[in-house]
Amino acid sequence: MMDLEIGVYQNIVKKESWRTLLTLAYQSLGVVYGDLSTSPLYVFKSTFAEDIQHSETNEEIYGVLSFIFWTLTLVPLLKYVFIVLRADDNGEGGTFALYSLLCRHARLNSLPNGQLADEELSEYKKDHVGLAPKSSFGSKLKSTLERYRVLQRFLLVLALIGTCMVIGDGVLTPAISVFSAVSGLELSMSKEHHKYVEVPAACIILIALFALQHYGTHRVGFLFAPVVLTWLLCISAIGLYNILHWNPHVYQALSPYYMYKFLKKTQKDGWMSLGGILLCITGSEAMFADLGHFSQLSIKIAFTSLVYPSLILAYMGQAAYLSQHHIVDKDYRIGFYVSVPESLRWPVLVIAILAAVVGSQAIITGTFSIIKQCSALGCFPQVKIVHTSSKIHGQIYIPEINWTLMLLCLAVTIGFRDTKRLGNASGLAVITVMLVTTCLMSIVIVLCWQKSVFFAIAFVVFFGTIEALYFSASLIKFLEGAWVPIALAFIFLVVMCVWHYGTLKKYEFDVQNKVSINWLLSLGPSLGIVRVRGIGLIHTELVSGIPAIFSHFVTNLPAFHQVLVFLCIKSVPVPHVRPEERFLVGRIGPREYRMYRCIVRYGYRDVHKDDMEFEKDLVCSIAEFIRSGTAEANGSSAKDDLPKDEDKMTVVGTCSTHTKGIQMSEDDVNNPESAGTSELQEIQSPPVTKPKKRVRFIVPESPKIDRDAMKELQELMEAREAGIAYILGHSYVRAKKGSSMIKKLVINIGL
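Below the sequence we write its predicted structure tokens.
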């Protein structure tokens, strides 16, 4: 009977997990596949825009269909679904995830304030594999990368190039998706009239899309998946109808032989038209970039079971229709809408516009996310980040970036006014990101997965050759639109490199000018000034030592707070830091100085807390440090040992993570009732003055803490009741005399 019950329980768990998996797969349609699913709107139109013509023999249309089929099969299906998705960084994906993996496995961290304690983080070690043998290629590659700074900079720049192209895609994807969707109006009005309607209609939709960003997507996000699902079912049904009605034998064009016939007939023009065919995989990178919101299996299920077959049917249907319709007025009639039955064109137009908006929304949100990651890793200026949802992780809005994207998006829409040049621009951005992913993946295969170097070479040669072919076809269209992503990427890359360089130099200056611990000890416990009630939080980038700005405070201010905390908020090269590992707390000087160092660690995907809850967690972490470090602190009060003890930091979690440790309670003075338990004892502050809040530390009875620690906790409580003051010091970066003109321009003006 017991075995039967266990079996029933396991079935329930299995059913629930499958239900969750299918729900995630369904939700991923709206977030991940919006861009990819709208590509049939413009692929054939862009391909036949200029370089090749649709002829009676159908060799061109069959060749293009064959290229589309094999490109969709080899790149999104084989490369991303079966290989790249496995290279996640603790569940996160994207260019920075690959770079983060390499940083941890080969000590390539570009952040200057890294510590050995960071390597003890759970997520830092989660995917760590045992070191490769000394003789292996992976070990040699690791030592080479660690030895040469130029290789480390090259990898960082490579990752930033991929990131900049994603930002460029954030400008181009909304433009081409919305413009192509609106282009369905061309079949309902004369050619003279529709060109005056298309651009204004596309611009109005784009302005509305960007204007609504600050509301967040959580209110309408539940509509995204149904819209994309409806669109996929719509294009696959129309595709199936066109196949059965116009050309049931179109499936024969899936043979690679038709690619050979196509290139043999069209030659150079056929190669140049690959820039249009490339657009069929626009949005494939989103499968990897948005991995953090879903799971590998859910993304794989959604793509293989629905997205991939729907797209193949849609393209086959368009090819089947075009194979029987050769009367074309220039390139005006080739497109998606011409293959849609006339009675369905208006409903399909509405669904297409909605699907284009959803696809655009996903890429805009992704752009916000990737800029936040760049900023966290010191590669982008600090920007205002607004969290649009308190419940859904990762939904953010960056006002400056939003309006910049909108202006650029409107500029390319109005400037180009056709899918041909928009397609050339978008295609180059897409294929560059894919090439960067291929290069980084080859290093991950050897360094992180510790596979044979031949496997990495095979990966680069096979997928790199395919992508290089498309890249060359896109690059040749430089003057016909492809210059846009290059220009955008160059501007963003310069900004990122300058900011990163300035951040490193500023940190180096702070390290070189930090104050000696001996100077601090010579001042005595009072620091030579009056110590008043309260907590002073001194923000600093340093993870060790005393910032130079502190000596300025001490010599210029008549009084200072009784408790001083040197607060360093830093990012580490992992996506998330667990709450129980959030804080590193240590002591500066002897106990009677009441000075602490607190390092708050966030992953590049974490939400930074800057509210009252953060203050409570901070004070509680210091209290827990005092309690847990009592025994150690008792034996280390000698001044000679201080330089050693200063480096000793204790990992402390947030209040909610150490339930068996100290808990902090804050009550309004008008509600003085307090609850005590038999297992806990309270430390209360004496009613000397009437504070706004009464703070209590609830300390476990076991283990016992000594009198000095109790006194220290008492003072910390009194200081918390008096309030917290945030003390910020700002230093300006200027180039040294004798520096080159370029360095002066970069440092003095760029930062």
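Confidence is low (pLDDT under 50) at residues 1-16, 127-135, 631-646, 672-680.
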